[in-house]
Design brief:
Elements lengths: L9 E4 L2 E4 L8 E4 L5 E4 L5 H13 L3 E5 L5 H12 L3 E4 L5 E4 L13 E2 L4 H12 L4 E5 L10 H9 L3 E4 L7 E4 L8 E3 L5 H12 L4 E6 L6 H8 L4 E5 L5 E6 L8 E3 L4 H13 L4 E8 L6 H8 L3 E10 L2 E9 L7 E2 L11 H9 L3 E6 L11 H11 L4 E3 L3 E6 L8 E2 L5 H11 L6 E3 L12 H8 L2 E2 L1
Parallel strand pairs: 4-17, 5-16, 8-9, 12-13, 20-21, 24-25
Antiparallel strand pairs: 1-2, 3-25, 3-26, 5-7, 6-7, 9-11, 10-11, 13-15, 14-15, 17-19, 18-19, 21-23, 22-23
Helix pairs in contact: 1-2, 1-6, 2-3, 3-5, 4-5, 7-9, 7-11, 9-10, 9-11
Bound molecules: shikimate-3-phosphate and phosphoenolpyruvate (PEP).
Length: about 450
């Protein structure tokens, strides 16, 4: 049995919450197991959960949310929307209710908004705050405070927003909303749904027409949910093949009933765990199959994975289904850069699948991995190295040379990154010696109950 994973204690230092030193982390080790079996659900999709709270707070009336992901990241967004004046509560049946205020009508938060570990929460809410003529202060944990915010601050500055920060374009910072705000046309310079969404949300909350040009298609939850809440959003392809999104500001949104499907980025961990441990068969129910999110499934199928989609159906405007996965002999493939946006959070766990696959897996176009909760390319490389898996790390690519016995026995540094923690626990389920991650508590940012769920299927943690 494992020790119960507790959040490391936190302390407030000069306004920025820091993780304690290594003596306060919650290590967890995974050891070789004899297969995973069962039917399961994973928690609700993180991207849709953030947006359900945000759109609920901007809509008139009471939005109901079923299956909200109750993780630290999402709960921080809930607190932020409450600080802007929305009423956010949940009942005994875990249904969440958000009573909104209307677009452009939020009130100035009296305190500092703490987004913890969440890039999505911080960046989307910056779009809303920037369009309101008041001051909002943002902070986060040590990981979020090191991530680049210029990617959203630059378009907001063009709209007239003032940014006050002591540490460059990093948290903590204060936004002084533009008055009046100036709608813009913005070409998103990197493949980022967070940047696209920030600009669209700012545009929604100010008078005039805002345009976002997206050269590379990223997850489309903001677009789908805007329409779902009753907004009109223009979408066309320009001559260069880029998507042009047009939004008229101050449109009224209407409260909705939202059912959040299972998160494919969370399902990725039991999927890969089942593939690499002989004797496994899992059915993971009600998973979001939006095609801007299914790059990992495509890649695993190319690698020879025995994965089938069952009971495929529509739910609330999204394709969902059950995923059946059985242990498989995988082979290495090349994952093209163009696929990266549809599986951007799944590269750490794909690297684990690649370690167990025969031959080389080459992953290209990974520059965005360097600015996630950790530098994920470096963190994955260090974890592979510590556990005896050969690899080559480039500036924006990773090659994993799989197929040998995985020695394991390594201690992996998570760097406040939930996906690094879960990925290397999965690696340990097939390795010769246990694999330890230095902090399993960070997993609560996206997948509360991960360790218990995996143990119930047959995983062995200690
Ligand atoms: O918009 C979203 O909900 C998200 C977008 C992605 O980030 P980027 O937009 O930075 O790629 C992803 O990594 C994150 O987990 C969730
Ligand atoms: C990158 C991620 O999240 P965020 O950017 O919201 O912190 C993630 O969940 O893998």
């Amino acid at each position: 049995m494992r020790n119960s994973a507790k959040r490391p204690s936190m302390e407030i230092k000069q306004g920025v919450r820091m993780a304690h030193d290594s003596t306060n982390l919650s290590p967890l080790a995974a050891r070789k197991c004899s297969g995973l079996r069962g039917h399961l659900r994973v928690p609700g999709d993180k991207s849709i959960s953030h947006r359900a709270l945000i759109f609920g707070a901007l809509a008139r009336g009471e939005t109901q949310i079923h299956g909200l992901l109750e993780s630290e990241d999402v709960l921080n967004t809930a607190k932020a929307m409450a600080a802007f004046g929305a009423t956010v509560r949940k009942d005994d049946e875990d249904v969440w209710y958000v009573e909104g205020l209307g677009t452009g009508s939020l009130v100035e938060p009296t305190g500092v908004l703490d987004f913890g570990n969440s890039g999505t929460g911080a960046r989307l809410v910056m779009g809303i705050a920037g369009a309101h003529a008041f001051a909002t202060t943002f902070m986060g944990d040590a990981s979020l405070s090191s991530r680049p915010m210029g990617r959203v601050l630059n378009p907001l500055r063009e709209m007239g927003v003032e940014v006050l920060s002591r540490s460059g374009d990093r948290l903590p910072l204060t936004l002084k909303g533009a008055d009046p705000a100036q709608p813009i046309t913005y070409r998103v310079p990197m493949a980022s749904a967070q940047v696209k969404s920030c600009v669209l949300l700012a545009g929604l909350n100010m008078a005039g027409t805002t345009r976002v040009i997206e050269p590379v298609k990223t997850r489309d939850h903001t677009e789908k949910m805007l329409r779902g809440f009753g907004a009109t959003l223009g979408e066309e392809m320009n001559d260069a093949g880029e998507t042009v999104l047009t939004i008229e500001g101050l449109q009224e949104l209407t409260a909705q009933d939202v059912t959040v499907p299972g998160d494919p980025s969370s399902a990725a961990f039991p999927i890969v765990a089942a593939l690499i441990t002989p004797g496994s068969e899992l059915v993971i129910e009600d998973i979001l199959l939006n095609e801007t999110r299914t790059g990992l499934i495509t890649t695993l199928l190319e690698m020879g994975a025995d994965i089938t989609i069952e009971n495929e159906r529509n739910s609330g405007g999204e394709r969902i289904g059950d995923i059946r996965v059985r242990s498989s002999a995988l082979k290495g493939v090349t994952v093209p850069a163009a696929r990266a946006p549809s599986m951007i959070d799944e590269y750490p766990v794909l690297s684990v699948a690649a370690a167990y696959a025969e031959g080389e897996t080459r992953m290209e176009g990974l520059e965005e991995l360097r600015v996630k909760e950790s530098d994920r390319l470096a963190a994955v490389a260090a974890g592979l190295e510590a556990n005896g898996v050969p690899f080559e790390e480039g500036k924006d690519y990773l090659v994993v040379r799989g197929g040998g016995t995985i020695a394991g026995g390594g201690r992996v540094i998570t760097h406040l990154d939930h996906r690094i923690a879960m990925s290397f626990l999965v690696l340990g389920l097939g390795a010769e010696k246990p694999v330890t991650v230095d902090d399993a508590a960070i997993i609560n940012t996206s997948f509360p109950g991960f360790a218990d769920l995996m143990e119930a299927l047959g995983a062995e943690f200690e």
